Amino acid sequence: MDWLLGSPKVRGAALSLIIFGSFIGIWQLSTMGGGVSTGLDPEYAKLMGKTATEGASAFPTPGQVAAKIWEHLSDPFYDKGPNDKGLGIQLAYSLGRVLLGYLLAVAVAIPVGFVIGMSPLLNRAFDPFIQVLKPVSPLAWMPLALYTIKDSSTSSIFVIFICSVWPMLLNTAFGVSAVRKEWLNVARTLEVSPLRLAFTVILPAAAPTIVTGMRISIGIAWLVIVAAEMLVGGTGIGYFVWNEWNNLSIANVIISILLIGLTGMLLDQMLARFGRAVSYPD
């Protein structure tokens, strides 16, 4: 147990490995003979290629999932038709939609939030509309988007845009309005122009709060694209999950969940690093 005497980072990593190993062990035991799925429903068992009294679990083992992962990694960009594309292609489509909708939201939310934050009058005027639209589920916009845009891929991008706008807009407005009054008074005393004031005083001071809003938005955007692609179909990691469930490939569903989680973590960590870069040291 020497690792207990190491640094907090080492102890945390060791504990994570123990938790992961325990999870894999429980998973393996639960999918062995006599597991939870003994006595399957006859119709479901027939779909899964098993008999109703078969002892082995219909749920894949860790080894089977690992074998599937290796199979996907060996050729992630294959394309054998509309319903048979590699995980790399599916992920690329999803990331493309998310980044396009997200960047459009950045282009709208940050300037508008900046203006609202600098003007108490505009803040009060826009606040009722923001408070009404902010709680609306992004997927509630999908039928309206499909009806007006008439393109499933573009509709998905619009849904990403609409769900990414609000956290960035509100955080930007809050960050700008919370800039210390002393700094603004000094700038006015020095007769700094409004444009220079915005870029040299307000923006650096509000940057950490703005990036926090961007970080919240990217998490919501990645969450929503999976659900949107399940609804509209075509391509993307969300469609892949739904298609594999229809094919009763539980191993591929598990792999998709892992890939979605890892991709979301990487996107979040990228913006977390950016946030630390624009923050002032304590």
Care to describe what's here?
The protein is an all-alpha fold and 282 residues long. It folds into two domains: 2-56, no CATH class; 87-278, MetI-like (MetI-like fold). Helix content is 74%, strand content 0%. The protein has helices spanning 8-30, 42-47, 62-74, 87-118, 120-133, 142-149, 152-177, 181-189, 194-232, 237-246, 250-278. The radius of gyration is 25 Å and the shape is globular. It starts with 7 loop residues before the first helix and ends with a helix.
N→C terminal distance: 35 Å
CATH class categorisation of the largest domain: Mainly Alpha
Instruction: Give the count of structural domains.
Output: 2
The average pLDDT is 83
Number of helices: 11
What is the radius of gyration computed over CA atoms, rounded to a whole number of angstroms? 25 Å
Strand count, sense and closure of the main sheet? none
- Which regions contain 5 or more consecutive residues with pLDDT less than 50? 34-39, 51-56
What name goes with the CATH superfamily of the largest domain? MetI-like
Identify the overall geometry.
globular
Portion in strands: under 5%
The assigned CATH architecture of the largest domain is Orthogonal Bundle
Could you tell me the number of beta strands? 0
Order of helices and strands: HHHHHHHHHHH
Q: Assign the CATH topology of the largest domain.
A: MetI-like fold
